[in-house]
Specification:
globular, alpha/beta
């Protein structure tokens, strides 16, 4: 059984790496792996605060802003974060961090780490591709929000939480365009592919590990 988790950079490294979260998260994963020898995880790690800080610096300085360059800056942050999580997973993670989710390589360990691939989308898209490759019927998207809202609740006090939503309605909210550093619950490009696959995506608060365990237990 393979579970794919899009592990938001906003919880791994909101500004800098968060050792308290990483310790609690890894403790949960280690326990679940020990309790069930058939369980395996794929974690696709986002760029978080470091990605946005470096992208913002580029935007403020570069005379000719290039979206691809901004994407590559963010991608490098995802790779650093993923390498950190891989190191924490220790002997459970025998494979190198995956940069190209379409590359046909065996998954030798119990945990596989993946990071940003190339410009044009976020790590959410990489997670969807890996879910397809390893035949996962569900993807858990962990971030710093507990649910999808009708609008950004930090900007709109009238934003309402949504318990379930169709891909058609969700894509109408987030649009079809990817902008480097775009802050949406799930990447528009990833959403299009997930809809094509009929993939179920659950958005949940990454720091609520009790809730994460409940999701993983069905």
């Amino acid at each position: 059984m393979v579970t794919v988790i899009s592990l938001g950079g906003s919880i791994v490294a909101p500004a800098n790496p968060d050792p308290v979260f990483l310790k609690d998260f890894s403790s949960l994963i280690f326990r679940l792996l020990e309790e069930d020898s058939e369980r395996r995880f794929i974690f696709v790690v986002g760029g978080g605060g470091p990605a946005r800080a470096w992208q913002d610096a580029y935007r403020s300085v570069a005379p000719n802003f290039c979206p691809d360059d901004a994407d590559w800056i963010g991608i490098m942050a995802t790779r650093l974060n993923a390498r950190l999580v891989k190191a924490i997973m220790g002997s459970y993670c025998l494979d190198e961090v995956v940069f190209d989710p379409t590359e046909e390589k065996p998954f030798k360990g119990r945990v596989l780490l993946a990071a940003g691939w190339k410009p044009g989308f976020s790590t959410d898209f990489d997670a969807v591709v890996l879910a397809e490759r390893f035949k996962a019927d569900m993807l858990i998207n962990l971030s710093n929000i507990a649910k999808v809202y009708t609008d950004d609740p930090k900007k709109d006090p009238n934003a309402k939480p949504i318990d379930t939503i169709s891909w058609k309605d969700f894509r109408a909210m987030v649009g079809d365009e990817w902008v480097p550093g775009k802050n949406v619950p799930f990447d528009p490009i990833a959403s299009r592919k997930a809809e094509e696959m009929g993939l179920k995506v659950i958005c949940a608060a990454g720091r609520d590990l009790e809730n994460l365990e409940a999701l993983l237990e069905g």
